[in-house]
Amino acid sequence: RSPVFSHLNATVLGLATVRSFGAECLLGAEFDRHQDLHSAAWYLFISCSRAFGYFLDSISLTGIFQWGMRQSAEMENQMTSVERVIEYTKLPNEPALRSSPDKKPPANWPPEGFIHFDDLSLKYTPDGNYVLHKLQLEVLPQEKIGIVGRTGAGKSSIIQALFRLAYLEGTISIDGIDVSTIGLHDLREKISIIPQLLRALQNVELQSEDEGTERQLVCLARAIVHNDRILVLDEATANVDAQTDALIQTAIRVHFEHLERLSIGNILQILVLDAGRLMEYDHPHILLQNKKGYFRRMVGETGTTMARGLHKLAAQNCSK
Ligand SMILES: Nc1ncnc2c1ncn2[C@@H]1O[C@H](COP(=O)(O)OP(=O)(O)OP(=O)(O)O)[C@@H](O)[C@H]1O
Ligand SMILES: [Mg+2]
User: Fold this and answer.
1) Cβ neighbours around 300 below 10 Å, total
2) Could you tell me where in the chain the CATH 3.40.50.300 domains are found?
3) Rounded to whole angstroms, how far apart are CA atoms 256 and 249?
4) Mind giving me the DSSP string for 151-214?
5) How far apart are the CA of 154 and the centre of ligand 1, in A?
6) If we measure between CA atoms, which residue out of 161, 175, 176 comes closest to residue 119?
């Protein structure tokens, strides 16, 4: 049954995409295939249990005995679920959530917010490919950096690394403390994030989009209350309406003036990523001077007018 349900669910969620690609027939055929498989299995189940019933009737074992047999078969089925749950209890544990007493960072950590990535590589599964390759960089206290790169370049993965949400090699230290030595909660409590929204939300009806916006506003409110030294924005204003966008931008400007930001607008440093490798890392104006530069090429691809505007903006910001 579950393939039928998940197929239907995915189809309904992606209805706009399905229609725009004219893929109704394809999806219809896929659905029929799942449905056929389900019907076949269900039919077999019913036939077998009826046939078994007749067999028991024919040897005059009826009533409670037949019921007992059915129940034992049912129990065998249900035990599959138990097996699945038990499988989860055997998964390897996450590292400790709290630091051991001798490693506990001070309550005001991080006092400055100096981040140092040292030969940092990241992968999402123990035997998977590296998504980030030996990143070597420093983010100074109060510095704002913007990460650019094509889709899949590893922008969000840098953030995953900061929160230790994947398999890391190399070290990340914040104000001199290697984050791999402290508890996960001790680390994650100290960094505020306003995450990238699920892309799927873009396609779904307004209600979900509102929920997305709401989630970002909650994250922002939390960040303001916590007043952390490090604030991370991952396309924070990508899928919200203009009014909310303005609200978020203003709130960030007002409440995080003293903070370092990986953020939009008024950016001091640009980090250019390509396929998980650090390509360039400098002030946008300086990067734009490099005729063969990666960043310059990306800006050029936005079109003449836009590129001219961006060049001017970078030059203005540089002279400030
Ligand atoms: N949870 C995951 N498990 C396995 N691979 C992943 C996971 N998340 C991302 N990846 C892979 O890691 C690479 C980098 O993805 P990432 O999300 O960091 O890119 P991005 O630069 O943030 O892209 P976008 O601009 O689309 O947000 C991609 O190849 C992606 O397929
Ligand atoms: Mg991303």
Assistant:
1) 15
2) 105-282
3) 10
4) TTSSHHHHHHHHTT-SEEEEEEEETTEEGGGS-HHHHHTTEEEEPPPPTHHHHS-HHHHHHHHH
5) 6
6) 161
From 155, 158, 198, 277, mutation site for ligand 1 pocket: most ligand atoms within 8 A of C-beta = 155
Spatial distance between the Cα atoms of 212 and 196, rounded to a whole number of angstroms: 10
Span from the CA of 276 to the centroid of ligand 1 (angstroms): 10
Query: Residues 77-87, buried b or exposed e (16+ Cβ, 10 A)?
Result: eeeeeeeeeee
What 3-state DSSP class applies to 45?
A: helix
**Tens digits of residue pLDDT in 203-260:** 434 444 556 666 767 777 677 667 778 888 887 666 667 777 777 777 777 766 655 4
> Looking at the chain, which runs of residues are DSSP E strands?
115-123, 130-139, 145-148, 167-174, 177-178, 191-194, 230-233, 260-262, 269-274, 277-282
Cβ neighbors of 231 (< 8 A, separation 6 or more) are 191, 192, 193, 194, 223, 252, 256, 259, 260, 261, 262, 263
Q: Does the 105-282 domain belong in CATH 3.90.45.10?
A: no
Assess whether the C-beta atom of 197 lies below 6 angstroms from ligand 1. Answer: no
pLDDT (tens digit per residue) in 156-212:
999 999 999 999 999 999 999 999 999 999 999 888 887 765 443 444 344 445 566
